[in-house]
Design brief:
Length: 273
């Protein structure tokens, strides 16, 4: 699938961008914790097939925003649409069923389960068998379980760790644990994959491999929302970027526009505050 890379000059290119369906449409999201206004009127639109970046200095509200759209925090105000339908991020399991899968900055795997079993857990969000069927293991349940196993192995192959399927998850290398988290998130068949600092703690080689994987996921037709502190990685990877500072959006656009924005330079890229 061709990437969406709008250019500010050129009406035909702008029209092409606007013909791509909006996957996530968020308007006016605010969140306060006591006397702290963590988010204030944050709005963004993510179109199908984009890698959309969210950056900003520490404390800018990036993770709070992720927690709001994935049901961990309830917003004080704002509206949400997912693939053109009203969306209420009220609880994480409902968010997963609606079509948003999320990873965390701190890896959250089932460490004592196998790599394959971790991905199979993600697949169960879309299963149809009842508890009775799972216990009795009638024919339909066995067929679905084999389908889940096959799908999970295919996802492990997709992210490049199929050879470790039977290994205990906690025995994977750090970079491969990140890949496993992404495979498990993809197992939920998301419309939007939300990744919270997936490159955190990676060395240069692992970051290159991660970038290649994210491009591969995009080319498969998935849409990605990405928080990341590695500005170089984000500028070379994202189709569009929103910059937050003190919970407010201060810039939005293609990476070249964002990188040269004076407010961004001052707030995030090294200018004097």
């Amino acid at each position: 699938m061709a990437s969406v890379s709008p250019i500010s000059n050129g009406a035909s290119q702008a029209a092409s961008m606007h013909s791509v369906p909006i996957i996530l449409d968020i308007a006016g999201v605010s969140k306060r914790f006591g006397g702290l206004q963590a988010l204030s009127g944050v709005s963004l639109q993510i179109r199908q097939g984009q890698i959309y970046g969210l950056i900003g200095p520490n404390g800018a509200g990036k993770t709070t925003f992720f927690n709001v759209i994935t049901g961990l925090y309830q917003p004080d105000s704002g509206s949400f649409q997912l693939a053109g339908k009203r969306y209420s991020p009220s609880a994480p399991h409902e968010v997963a069923r609606a079509g948003i899968a999320r990873t965390f900055q701190n890896i959250r795997l089932f460490g004592e389960m196998s790599v394959l079993e971790n991905v199979m857990v993600g697949c169960h969000v879309r299963t149809h068998q009842t508890l009775f069927g799972a216990v009795v293991r009638h024919k339909a349940a066995r067929i679905e379980e084999q389908s889940i196993r096959d799908k999970s192995m295919a996802l492990l192959d997709f992210v490049g760790i199929a050879g470790f399927a039977e290994r205990t998850a906690r025995h994977l290398s750090y970079g491969d644990q990140r890949r496993l988290e992404i495979a498990r998130a993809l197992a939920t068949e998301p419309q939007l994959l939300a990744l919270d600092e997936p490159a955190a703690g990676m060395n240069a080689t692992e970051k290159i491999a991660l970038r290649e994987l994210l491009v591969k996921i995009k080319e498969s037709g998935k849409t990605i929302l990405l928080i990341e502190h590695d500005v170089k990685l984000m500028m070379g990877l994202c189709d569009r970027i929103t910059v937050l500072d003190y919970g407010k959006p201060i810039a939005e656009g293609v990476p070249a526009e964002v990188k040269s924005n004076p407010a961004v330079i001052e707030a995030y890229l090294g200018g004097a505050r």
